[in-house]
Amino acid sequence: MAKEIKEKFLVQFGEAVGTVAAQSLGEPGTQMILRTFHYAGVESTMSTSGLPRIVELVDAKKKPTTPITYIYLNKDISKSFDKAEEMIKKISEVTMNSIVRRVDENFSKGKIRLILSSQEMEAARLTTKAVASKISKDFGFETKSEGRIIEIKVGTRDPKKVRSERVRIMNSVISGIEGAGKVMLRQDESTKEFYLIAAGSDMESIVDIPGVDSTRIMSNDVFAVYRLFGVEAARNVIVHELAKTLDEQRIGVNRRHLALIADAMTARGNIKGVGRHGLSGEKGSVLARAAYEETVKHLVHAAVYGEIDHMNGVTENVLIGKQVPVGTGTVHLAIKKEDLSKVGKKK
Prior knowledge:
The chain is of the alpha+beta class. It has helices spanning about 1-10, 15-30, 50-60, 80-90, 95-100, 120-125, 130-140, 160-170, 205, 220-230, 230-250, 255-265, 285-290, 295-305, 315-320, 335-340; strands spanning about 35-40, 45, 70, 95, 100-105, 110-115, 140-145, 150-155, 175, 185, 195-200, 220. The two termini are about 30 Å apart. Residues about 35-45 have low confidence and may be disordered.
């Protein structure tokens, strides 16, 4: 009976699961190579790996260094190359900076002349007329197009304003979704379906496009997933990305440790880092907060506001030499005075 009960427990009562999880991730982290490498399939895009990626995740940075979104298509178009190519055109972010070869400003006439790159225009599947029309619609300027040249009348001869409008135009998005980045087409070898990889993480705009399977879209941007799908999905992404990064470095860490870290980061319904601005900085114990970082600040704050440390955690008890409340320290044994004399006596 005792054996059956024991096997039902995920961990033994009193096990220091937090310390074990921290050790399981922290120790291999010291062995990781500080480098990044090219992400297969996304040209000119670097995917952060190794220790820098681990730090990004556990510190809960708002934006990853290299966001990537995996976009799967609806079943009726996922195996059509032509339909997948059309989806790339709808999603891939194309800015004026990427298609313009040269810009000339005529301050005396209040005009801006754009010379477009034929190669980039063909790659983005755009026409000069379409680009000119987009500029007129977004900025309200009068435009004239011929060949690969667009002339824009900005309506002012003030050099400062002409230059300001040039900057606005050059930074504008002409086609696709702002924040989606460059999109590449890939095919799953097992299912033969096509899917897209975007070098950006504007998932909220991408899922609204007809043809995108909103149930299978995924990103390495934890906060983008959190905004779109909620905290449980974000928690799963943290576990997945931690595991993926460790696997790439051929480091074996049990997924339960990673799941515990992700649970702690998302337990309050939002995403908290593990540092002084997150979990460590919000501990209920004054001594535990002071032991991590900013010692003087926490002790002075506690003294000014009369905080009481109830010594319920591990760190604070280690600091003052008390028995920690884990393992055998979770058991409080008492014995009656009259029974004390019976201890050690033979029956």
